[in-house]
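So, does this match?
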Amino acid sequence: MTPLEALVALNMLPKIGPVRVRRLLQAFGDPASVLGAPMDRLQRVDGIGPESAGILHRWQDHADPAAEIRETEQRGISLITQDDEDYPAPLRDAYDPPLLLYVWGKLEARDRHAIGVVGSRRATTYGSNVTKKFSYQLAQSGFTIISGLARGIDTAAHEAALAAKGRTIAVIGSGMGKLYPPENLALAEKIADGNGAVVTEFPLGTAPDKQTFPMRNRIVAAWSRALLVTECPAWSGSLITANLASEYGKPVFAVPGPVDKPTSAGCNQLIRDGATLVADASHLLDDLGELPFQRAAPSEEPEERGTPELPEEEAAVFAAVGTDESPVDRIIERSGLPAQVVTATLMKLEMRRLVRAFPGFRYARR
């Protein structure tokens, strides 16, 4: 049995979980040794009683790791362990990191700059619009949007990131073979097709239930650099994700809503409890500081050092903005681009904190 097969087998066992497996690995050294350990030695490990020891001792009754690995390969799914370079560093540092991740798509180094966006499955028009606005702007600023592929707010967040031609990660509360909700399969395919990844810790055939979703939520909370809650009622599971993010030491942001609408009661309560109120993505970006977009390599010319790499139109508008305040008409003239293109691009550059807006439609480089 290979080390990967042994780890997959441990991950497939019921009623064990990542915290117990970590204790077992500390006691026995490697996954194969855990699976080959006698009952009496297994029960000496903290948290391993007779039932758990029996499951571990008879692991072949519950898992066929070789078949699981073959099926992942056939489906084009990667298996990433904590020892792999692609395993997200924020997860590795969590108290209960997933033993391994099933990844449909591709993870990239820039995905460490992830913002979690969560909220109600029963999103209102207000909630959907706010989520799309924030997610689009954050994705354009270089952040990866991470959410749970659920109906409502999660779906809006993923779709907005795709519309911005940014990165997005969907962490699902089921196995890849039981992707939930099924109507989001097309969205999952778009994400996996070069725009991010669909990720889960659960074996392929795992159906979603009331336990898998909280486990999914901890991954979103631990992976994210910060968490944004855009709309949720007082009983929402998004509040669990927000609490987990706080426990992990991650900043929590919340969008306020009408005080007479139960759909916003959860966000308003988060703000009362200490979450940062945000009414625009720029507020969140100001708090987070340095943006993750790439900068060009330093040039021999001092004035060009730190110039960001930008698409052609954005580069032309950025070049037309001086260090002194310039009216938008002058920027349009300098860039040679249509007015509507320049004004839209200036908003993007402002969100990236490359330019600053002043009264009277005047702009200057930051």
User: Anything to note?
Assistant: The first strand starts at residue 78 and ends at 81. The chain has 17 helices and twelve strands. Confidence is low (pLDDT under 50) at residues 294-306.
